[in-house]
Amino acid sequence: MAGVITVAVVDDDRMLRDGIRSWFEGVEEVDLVACAATVDELLAGPGKPPDVVLLDLMLRDDRPPADNIRRLRAAGSRVLMISVVADRDRIVAAVTDGADGFLTKDQELSVLVEAVGEIAAGRTAHSPELAFALAYDRGSMRPRLSPQEREVLVGYASGLTLKATARRAGITVNTAKYYLDRVKAKYQEAGRPTYTKIDLAARVREDGWR
Hints:
Layout: E1 5-10, H1 14-24, E2 30-36, H2 39-43, E3 52-56, H3 65-75, E4 78-83, H4 88-96, E5 101-104, H5 109-120, E6 125-126, H6 128-136, H7 147-157, H8 162-169, H9 173-189, H10 197-207
Parallel strand pairs: 1-2, 1-3, 3-4, 4-5, 5-6
InterPro entries: CheY-like_superfamily (IPR011006), NreC/VraR/RcsB-like_REC (IPR058245), Sig_transdc_resp-reg_C-effctor (IPR016032), Sig_transdc_resp-reg_receiver (IPR001789), Tscrpt_reg_LuxR_C (IPR000792), WalR-like (IPR039420), WH-like_DNA-bd_sf (IPR036388)
Keywords: DNA-binding, Phosphoprotein
Pfam families: Response_reg
């Protein structure tokens, strides 16, 4: 995404909100436009929806995370979940419900800024906790790939060109591209948008494809 990324924070911890505001003051590529204790408060505020919302996983107003994610996405924002605790089931559920990534609150500023940039650009952010959660999830988050799709995915994501991947798999370039398109579509259906070669490499790491 070109230009400055607009960001909002929804967290009922005032100290955390103030801390993030202080953090972002020196970051030229990010503009923190709003801080709120609830999604209701953020959506009732002035101005257009921010590009990315940092959303606490569990707020004291007891609204389900899925509802908060849905409303923010409907308003036009992408969502980065943040939490003190890396609860695997809740992480997987949040991503299934439409969150674009997950970070624990002990990350460095550089990690947070990088995650915001990835999400604003239409990709997903992967903390070690999210990668672990997705890798060991046995539900619908991990799509079923055919042996051919998996071979092409692993080869291409490892750094090979599409032509080299096709040659190693003993298929044409067009067939290799067809398999990659199917892999991307399956991840899309699983709620894990996958567009670039970087995204594909991340899926290989997360799901333990070898």
